[in-house]
Design brief:
Blueprint lengths: L2 E5 L3 E8 L11 E9 L1 H11 L3 E8 L5 H10 L3 E7 L5 E7 L5 E6 L11 H8 L3 E4 L5 H13 L3 E4 L9 H4 L4 E5 H7 L8 E5 L5 E4 L5 E4 L12 H12 L4 H15 L12 H9 L1
Parallel strand pairs: 1-4, 1-8, 2-6, 4-5, 8-9, 9-10, 10-11
Antiparallel strand pairs: 2-3, 6-7, 11-12, 12-13
Helix pairs in contact: 1-7, 7-8, 8-9
Length: 285
């Protein structure tokens, strides 16, 4: 079983469904609304835990009404929340609109995630004893860079999902062992990814492809499902990949593609993340 430390974001997702997303200046009638715990870090932590890993989460909630529900959601998924801190002010939120085709538009407000600027001695100790450090870019880049530096110093594999794309110092790229990007992110990041030994590019419904440190490649086809909501599918993919990375890129890619596809069959982010048994059954089929 892989030991994973996630240093990342945790949000409350405000999810509205509509027949079609509005054009600029237009008002449309919504069909439903739900509060769903999310955030790329929390989603990936839950996905890795459900895919079979042992996961610790390092992040921050605020002092608002969402904080307890966000912490409880991680705990209910058996993610270790001993390093989840509470910072003054609001928690992070994401306003999500999902249309009739399952495609989404997302606005993220950082809240406590943006105030996550320091790592404690306990955080660093957890990173040092993990197999994989899993990070995204919804918290300050300096915090991600510090976590990656400590991981690199202690021989912990660094997996970065550089989303949302932003300016990243070259020193951080030099410490990344595995990068997971979608096609748009891969195009934006361009040559920066050349410094990363292992690069996985997700292809939506067409699966994903892998490029190794010696130029070796592998791909996995998409898994046919009835798409309801794509929110959180990429995070589910990344968490499952991290959980099975120790089994080799090909096996990890199969688990990730299957888990990511299954996540699109249910509304919401963390609520849609499949269990180990669900993924395993789909793989055997």
């Amino acid at each position: 079983m892989a030991r994973i430390v996630v240093v990342g974001s945790i949000n409350m997702d405000l999810v509205t469904t509509v027949g079609r997303r509005p054009e600029p200046g237009e008002t449309v009638a919504g069909e439903s609304f739900a509060l769903v715990p999310g955030g790329k870090g929390a989603n990936q932590a839950i996905a890795a835990q459900r895919a079979g890993a042992e996961v610790e989460f390092v992040g921050a909630v605020g002092t608002d009404l969402f904080a307890d529900d966000l912490a409880r959601n991680l705990g209910d998924a058996q993610v270790d929340t001993a390093r989840l801190r509470c910072l003054p002010g609001p928690s992070g939120i994401a306003a999500i609109v999902v249309d009739g085709g399952g495609e989404n538009t997302i606005i993220v407000v950082g809240g406590a995630n943006a105030r996550m600027t320091e790592l404690t001695a306990a955080d660093i100790d957890a990173i040092a004893h993990a197999d994989i450090l899993l990070c995204q870019l919804e918290i300050p880049v300096d915090t991600v860079a510090a976590a990656a530096r400590h991981a690199h110093d202690h021989g912990t594999t660094v997996l970065l999902n550089p989303s949302p794309v932003r300016e990243v110092p070259p020193a951080l790229w030099a410490q990344v062992d595995i990068a997971v990007v979608n096609e748009g992110e891969a195009e934006q990041l361009g040559s920066a990814l050349a410094a990363v030994p292992h690069v996985i590019t997700t292809l939506g419904g067409d699966g994903a492809k892998y490029r190794g440190p010696h130029g070796e490649t592998h791909s996995h086809p998409g898994v046919p499902v009835q798409v309801v909501d794509t929110t959180g599918a990429g995070d589910t993919f990344t968490g499952a990949l991290a959980a099975h990375w120790h089994e080799g890129p090909e096996t990890a890619l199969a688990w990730a593609c299957t888990a990511g596809a299954l996540a699109t069959t249910t509304l919401g982010a963390s609520a849609s993340i499949p269990t180990y048994e669900h993924i395993e059954r789909a793989l055997t089929r």
